[in-house]
Design a protein that fits this description.
Elements: H1 2-18, H2 23-36, H3 45-48, H4 51-69, H5 72-81, H6 87-102, H7 107-125, H8 130-142, H9 152-161, E1 170-171, E2 174-175, H10 177-195, H11 215-232, H12 240-260, H13 263-271, H14 275-293, H15 296-308, H16 312-327, H17 332-350, H18 355-367, H19 377-388, H20 395-421
Antiparallel strand pairs: 1-2
Helix pairs in contact: 1-2, 1-14, 2-14, 4-9, 4-11, 4-12, 5-7, 6-7, 6-8, 6-10, 7-8, 7-19, 8-19, 8-20, 9-17, 10-20, 11-12, 12-13, 14-17, 15-16, 15-17, 16-18, 17-18, 18-20
Length: 422
């Protein structure tokens, strides 16, 4: 049965990579086969899927859709641009702004919010927006690991480790991922300053976006506050974070529909939820649960330990840089969902605190996605925006910014995590 599970698992990944437009179907069919063959017992399927993660992602996507529709992000970007003296500082300000937003909002949604502002500036100055949009995308992707709601990989980590919102700031009394990511972002921003050192064109004052609906902004702030509050309350349901996000989304949707009285808006908002990602994750939870059930995850963990000779530093380094390499070409959601139980098994074999290994995985997988144009959904979205505007983006255009940015962020995060957690 173990051999069959391994073959199915490898086949699943080959199809996920070969058929990117059908990833959800592949994951769902694979999960079904695992159940039909008895690799994953039917009675354990619902318990294997992390519903807290699924509900959190769905609710956050819905709230973000309402937030974007309110035009508040565009207004915030306008206010930032009004205080920048030239193109260089405008790009830096927009990249930092996209990073800040992305710590609380999905990376792709962040790029969709901020990129139009950069496009407007570049059109006014008659310069190419390619470098500006790439900078916004990589900064957005970087900050996704900063908080529990910043990225799907963070939500997966939080669900697997039982981390709450505040744990991303301080965990077990030590500085956690938020601060590690901020140091990485600071070092990477210095790289951006050097890359854009010659962009000194002055910017005229832009017309300011008008916001008439502040309720989605209140919802987003309420979500953050309630997630923080829930993290301090004892005996909360395991799905409390998902319930908070979905509850606030339902409230926001109800108010928007009552205000507009448009059935089309209700349908349109629901379409903004990424059902492909949700279905993909549900299927992967079952697939990974299946290979765990028959002992494949433990075998992979033993291989890691064998290769490193039980040396914690070597295992940590291998995890970080292997994750960087893999995430440069494979969607980090798929990779992290697979590797979390593997890291748990490695930690069990070694003994001691597993935190450094989990954090190493996230640093490598999330920050490493900026190495190539296809390494993260935010990068793909950014290139899609540029293509629609008639701009071709070569791999060289992307790596000119992505490679130094990624190396600066990953190396600083890699060193800092080791110094804090060992």
């Amino acid at each position: 049965m173990k051999t069959v599970a391994i073959v199915l698992f490898i086949l699943t990944y080959v199809l996920l990579l070969s058929l990117p437009r059908h990833r959800a179907k592949v994951a769902l069919i694979s999960a079904t086969v695992f159940v039909v063959l008895g690799i994953m017992p039917l009675g354990k399927v619902m318990g294997t899927i992390d519903w807290n993660v699924i509900l959190m992602i769905a609710g956050t996507m819905g709230i973000v859709s309402l937030f974007i529709d309110s035009k508040m992000p565009a207004l915030l970007a306008d206010l930032i641009i009004a205080r920048t003296p030239n193109v260089k500082w405008a790009i830096i300000a927009l990249s930092m702004f996209s990073g800040f937003i992305s710590a609380f909002v999905d990376n792709v949604a962040t790029v969709l919010m901020v990129a139009p502002v950069a496009l407007t500036i570049c059109k006014k100055l008659k310069i190419s927006p390619v470098s500006s949009i790439i900078a916004i995308a990589v900064a957005s992707n970087l900050q996704g690991a900063a908080t529990l709601v910043g990225d799907t990989t963070s939500i997966l980590l939080g669900g697997h480790m039982g981390m709450n919102f505040s744990d991303f700031f301080f965990y077990k009394g030590l500085p956690s991922l938020f601060w590690i990511v901020q140091i990485g972002a600071l070092v990477a921003t210095v790289i951006l300053l050097w890359i854009f050192r010659n962009e000194k064109q002055k910017i005229d004052t832009m017309e300011r976006t008008v916001v008439t609906n502040f309720f989605p902004s209140i919802l987003l702030l309420s979500m953050i506050i309630l997630l923080i509050t829930a993290s301090f309350l004892p005996d909360m349901p395991r799905t409390i974070n998902g319930m908070i996000c979905m509850g606030l989304f339902a409230l926001g949707l109800l108010k928007s529909v009552l205000d507009r009285r448009e059935k089309a808006f209700f349908v349109e908002t629901f379409r903004e939820i990424d059902y492909v990602t949700l279905t993909l994750l549900a299927g992967l939870f079952v697939v990974v649960g299946g290979i765990t059930q028959v002992g494949v995850v433990d075998d992979i963990a033993k291989l890691f330990v064998k290769l490193s000779g039980d040396n914690l530093f070597l295992i940590y380094s291998l995890l970080v840089w292997f994750s960087v390499l893999v995430s440069a070409f494979i969607d980090n959601i798929i990779y992290v969902a697979t590797m979390l139980p593997v890291v748990g098994s490695i930690a069990a074999l070694l003994g001691g605190d597993p935190t450094i290994l989990y954090f190493g995985l996230i640093i490598g997988a999330t920050l490493g996605g900026n190495l190539t144009p296809v390494g993260a959904s935010a990068n793909i979205a950014a290139i899609g925006i540029l293509n629609k505007q008639g701009f071709e983006v070569s791999t060289k255009d992307f790596t000119r910014i992505g490679v130094p940015f990624t190396l600066a962020a990953v190396i600083s995060g890699y060193v800092l995590t080791w110094l804090i957690w060992v």
